[in-house]
Amino acid sequence: MVNRKKTIIAFCCVLVCAVAITAIIILSNKEPQEIILYPMSVINVYDTKEVSGFSDYVFIAKVNKQIETIYDRVEGINRPDTVFSLTVLENIKGKLAENTEIKWMKQGGVSQDGKYFYKTEENEIFPQTDKIYLICAVATDKGELLTTVPTAVVELDFDYESIDFSKGTENAEFKEKTDMSEVVRLYRDSVKNEKFFTLKDRYLSKYDEGGQKIEIRVPYATSYTLPDERPTVSENITSDGLTKNYDDFGKQ
Predict the structure, then answer these.
(1) Helix, strand, or coil here: 163?
(2) Nearest C-alpha neighbor of 177 from the set 189, 159, 154, 195
(3) How far is Cα 149 from Cα 138, in angstroms, rounded to an integer?
(4) Phi, psi for 56 (deg, rounded to 5)
(5) CB 247 within 8 A of CB 228
(6) pLDDT in tens, 157-200
(7) SS3 for 29?
(8) How many C-beta atoms lie closer than 10 Å to residue 71's C-beta?
(9) For residue 14, what are the contacts with CB-CB under 8 A and spacing of at least 6?
């Protein structure tokens, strides 16, 4: 009788331990809670001409891997920026190096404690490894590539998985599909007719084939300037209110 009680107690202990371990595993595998930040924007993020005009680079790229997440303290939150390795397949605006791995930062990602996943819009696309996207990005003063606009990462509307990129970007099948793509044609047209955003400093990426950093400071204009009419150098921005709003928007 005593042995039977000991057996029952031992079984109960094992059962409790098993339940506890299972609970720990489930909790540890729990997906981070999604947090939408909804930051203030200085452009209409749904107007592709404004997004193109705000961006320094518009390109098609394959995501090779996620490298790391870095954190910046903004309004009491350690805001994450996720760093990816990309290979640029086609430049639509700007001349980034092709057929070589470069780094690109996307605003958003997993919090430092792993509990939260920060996004700037509910339907924002977060890149996945081995997929190809159309990306709009700016160059920072350090030459890094950064995307903060939530609509600036776009999924392509054609099947690219069968395309062989082993010989580089000079691929007839890829060119044919991009030429027929409504998404790509939309952004090619948007770049040609972009609403150039002047309330920002302009820099070249360190991955730019030109290789030299330039800075363009221009006053804010209520109407956009066409690409061939852009000023090269002008006076500094003098509107503190507008400058403050831009600084709040992101790192660019």
Answers:
(1) coil
(2) 159
(3) 10
(4) -90, -25
(5) no
(6) 888 888 877 766 677 888 888 999 999 999 999 999 999 998 88
(7) coil
(8) 13
(9) none
Can you list the pairs that 156-165 forms with residues at least 24 positions away whose Cβ atoms lie under 8 Å? Answer: 156/60, 156/132, 156/181, 156/183, 156/184, 157/181, 157/182, 157/183, 160/132, 165/62, 165/87, 165/89
Q: Say how far apart CA 184 and CA 247 lie, in whole Å.
A: 30
Structure tokens of 228?
A: 């061939």
Convert the pLDDT of each residue in 92-144 to its tens digit. Answer: 999 999 989 999 999 999 998 899 998 988 889 999 999 999 999 999 999 99
Cβ atoms 37, 60 nearer than 8 A: no
Distance CA 159, CA 202 (A): 35
Model pTM greater than 0.70?
A: yes
Please count the residues of the chain: 252
Q: Which residue in 151, 206, 164, 149 sits closest to 62, CA to CA?
A: 164
Alpha helices in 164-209 (DSSP H): 172-180, 182-192
Count the alpha carbons within 13 Å of 24 in the hemisphere toward its beta carbon.
Answer: 6
